[in-house]
Amino acid sequence: MRKITKFIWIMAFLACAIPAVAHTHEEQAIPVPKSESLFNLTDSWTTSNGKPFHLNELSGNPSVIAMIYTSCKDICPLIVEDMKKIERRLPAARAGKVNFAVFSFDSERDTTKKLKEYAKSHGIDSLSWVVANSKPEVVRRLAVVLGMKYKKTKTGDFEHGIAIYILDEAGVVQYVQTNLGKNEEEAILALKHMEH
Hints:
By secondary structure, the protein is of the alpha+beta class. It folds into two domains: 1-30; 38-192, Glutaredoxin (3-Layer(aba) Sandwich), CATH 3.40.30. It has five helices and nine strands; from the N terminus they run H-E-E-E-H-E-H-E-H-E-E-E-E-H. Strands 2-1-5-4-3-8-9 form a seven-stranded mixed β-sheet, sandwiched between helices. It has a two-stranded antiparallel ribbon with strand order 6-7. Helix 3 links the parallel strand 4 and strand 5. The radius of gyration is 21 Å and the shape is globular.
């Protein structure tokens, strides 16, 4: 009898615990709301040319975007390089018809001047590219919609996720590349599916 009572108690405990664990796992499994357009964010950014910029200026064409900061010496340059690989692999007919944009985590140190120098040194200062910064709360809102986790460290640098996002012309994320140095074939395929 004691064994049966113990068994019932264990089963009752598991019945209460398992849904909670499953629910938590479910929330973590969907970091980017698929129906959410980035263009719903109306915040103002500042480009490396010192001009105001709004995310909806990317509308009308697919976009390849990422979040980085210019003081990063290892991960961020690789993210930018992967984006440039995607740009180089675009068919000739798509050249100039895909936007590329990087948004800085570092509101304090990434001044317009520093962004301009970074864009030039990394070869991303063409008309197809936007390099921009904004206030911390604006950065946070973009990161939340993208599902990008980041944290400022005591040194002023940032711990952050690795992701390149492919958006459709309406600003909805259609593909996320999370491995650096990955074959860009899937990203190109995602962009190809957006052709009219």
